[in-house]
Write a structure and sequence with these properties.
Domain HTH araC/xylS-type: 159-257
Structural class: alpha+beta
Keywords: Activator, DNA-binding, Transcription, Transcription regulation
Radius of gyration: 20 Å
Helix content: 40-55%
Largest sheet: 6 strands, antiparallel
GO molecular function: DNA-binding transcription factor activity; sequence-specific DNA binding
Length: 270
């Protein structure tokens, strides 16, 4: 299957709605970029400069290490189209972090058309390239909300650091010193680089990766102790405390929720 100049393949295309639930941001992992096109409601984008509110028509472009949009503190519902692309090595697809839709058709019409055509273009790199080009051409950068750029050398160091974290977070012995050594910078330089690229410190990034992985493993109905070990936590108790602090409930409660959702429904025939 041939690769297009910018996009290797389409990883996912989906509509997402929060309804009355509160969602935290996700981290974008190496080898992919994601675009979120807001269709309705209001969300926040966390950046090193603070929180930026986004609404209908806003198009947010995420590179590896970035965090996706999330629910506001007021839990205002929002709806968006999520497009995930696998990128070719050494290429970035993003023009700017935040754009606004300017197409002749509405953002919602574009989203509905894209989702309707998806079933006929699964694993089609040309369809992925079309989506990328359409979003690039039919949107304009929001210069008044443009985020701080980091230098080329800092960007390379961040990429090395985040790649190392994403591959090693399950090791309880992983330290910020290890990450700095892998990125070929000092610990203080690493903190400055992260400060310019994300609102997370290197240590917080490690824990965020561990938490997101734990959420995935919990859905597989594994014992809590095993989930903690697989996610890089030194103890089950430490994992439970960290999980409850971040998500507001225990991993056991989430596990029971998954079990209820997967339980078979029994009906009476008599």
């Amino acid at each position: 299957m041939p690769n297009t100049p910018y996009v290797a393949t389409l990883l996912s295309l989906m509509s997402f709605q929060t309804y009355d639930r509160h969602y935290l941001p996700r981290i974008i992992y190496p080898g992919r970029e994601e675009i979120e096109l807001v269709l309705d409601g209001q969300a926040i984008l966390k950046t090193p400069q603070g929180e930026q509110r986004v609404g209908p028509g806003d198009l947010i472009w995420h590179q590896p290490g970035d965090q996706t949009i999330a629910s506001t503190r007021e839990r205002v519902p929002y709806e968006c189209l999520i497009l995930a692309l696998k990128t070719n090595p050494g290429r970035s697809l993003r023009r700017s972090r935040m754009n606004h839709w300017t197409g002749v058709i509405s953002a919602r019409q574009f989203a509905e058309d894209a989702l309707r055509r998806l079933s006929d273009h699964v694993d089609d790199p040309e369809f992925a390239e079309y989506l990328y080009c359409a979003l690039k051409i039919h949107s304009e950068p929001q210069y008044n909300t443009e985020l701080q750029n980091v230098s080329h050398s800092s960007a390379l160091a961040f990429d090395k650091a985040f790649q190392f974290i994403s591959e090693r977070f399950s090791d309880p012995a992983l330290t910020v010193d290890n990450v700095a050594e892998a990125a070929l910078v000092s610990v203080s330089q690493l903190h400055n680089i992260f400060r310019g690229k994300t609102d997370l410190t290197p240590y917080q990034m490690i824990n965020q990766c561990r938490m997101e992985y734990a959420l995935t493993v919990l859905s597989e109905n594994r014992p809590i102790k095993q989930v903690a070990a697989m996610s890089g936590f030194e103890s089950e108790g430490g994992f439970i405390r960290a999980f409850k602090k971040k998500y507001g409930h225990s991993p056991g409660a989430l596990k029971k929720h998954h079990q209820r959702l997967s339980a078979p429904v029994l009906t009476s025939l008599g």
